[in-house]
Amino acid sequence: MVAVLERIFAIFLSVEFLMGILGNGFIALVNCIDWVKRRKISSVDQILTALAISRITMTLFVFLDGWVFVHYPALHLTVKVFGTYSITWTVINHCNFWLTTSLSIFYFLKIANFSNTIFLYLKFRVKNAVLVTLLVSLFFLFLNIVVMKIYCDMCIDDVQRNVSHTSRLCNYAQICRFLLFTNPMFSFAPFVMSLANFLLLIFSLWRHLKNMQHNTKEYRDVSTVAHIRALQTIIISVLLYTLFFLSYILMAWSSDSKGKYLIFLSFWTLGNGALSAHPFVLIWANRRLRWASLLVLLWLRYRLKT
């Protein structure tokens, strides 16, 4: 029964891997082609491209790590390889979370309407606000790497004192659990920021509908549609973001025993599914990407008929 479930999870993870590569690859390719043609790229496209590249890197990294673990388990347990793995995973995961948060900040500042002085200051300096957010995130990345490296060095010293295979496996499992715990902990700040942007955008829409009751219908419709489209994108993004974040925490909880192995795989599949579905939400929300995807689908339909 366990073997059958493992194969089912492997099929799901393979499908999610292909979806993630295709969706994120499409976003990066379309934006890069448009950048070459126009010799310029908008701020939102810069964020989308960077996010797509980080997601592709994360997907390939997870696939490579799984392949090495299955075919070369001894290499996977070496100090140098696992130390490199831990730091690389932390950096990629950090980029994924903070670029997603930067995208929500961009949408919020561009579409929301508030008379607050601080908000108006940031609204006219969206690029600087996003840049400062990413620069501040580097402090959290540095702190995360320092904490993780200290713990890894302690485990490695213990392994060097006790070179038995059992000791190496135990320390490897401890580092994995610590990695699964610390990354969500340091990702809590961008998650809360994305959730706050979502709630403030809802409040902005409510204020807009209330204040525009006596204005012309045309103006009200244009602004309302912009709010609703942004809300639809952020709602789905926050839901997927929440699934990914919670799956991380639950993976850390379920990784401490072999009896919870299937639960661990379930949450891993759930988190990867949320991550793989997000690029298609971004494609649907972006008019240029949406039109490009429709053209690709029409071309594929024509090629299949011929």
Explain this structure.
With 306 residues, this protein is mainly α. It is 90% helix and 0% strand. The protein has eleven helices and no strands. Helix 9 (217-254) runs antiparallel to helix 10. The radius of gyration is 22 Å and the shape is globular. The termini are far apart. The mean pLDDT is 77.
Individual helix count: 11
- The gross shape turns out to be globular
Kindly provide the radius of gyration, computed on alpha-carbon positions and rounded to a whole number of angstroms.
Answer: 22 Å
Summarize the amount of helix as a percent range.
Answer: over 70%
The total count of strands amounts to 0
Amount of beta strand: under 5%
Instruction: State the end-to-end distance.
Output: 44 Å
- Secondary-structure element order, N to C: HHHHHHHHHHH
Largest sheet: none
Structural class: mainly alpha
Unreliable stretches? none
Average pLDDT, rounded to a whole number, is: 77
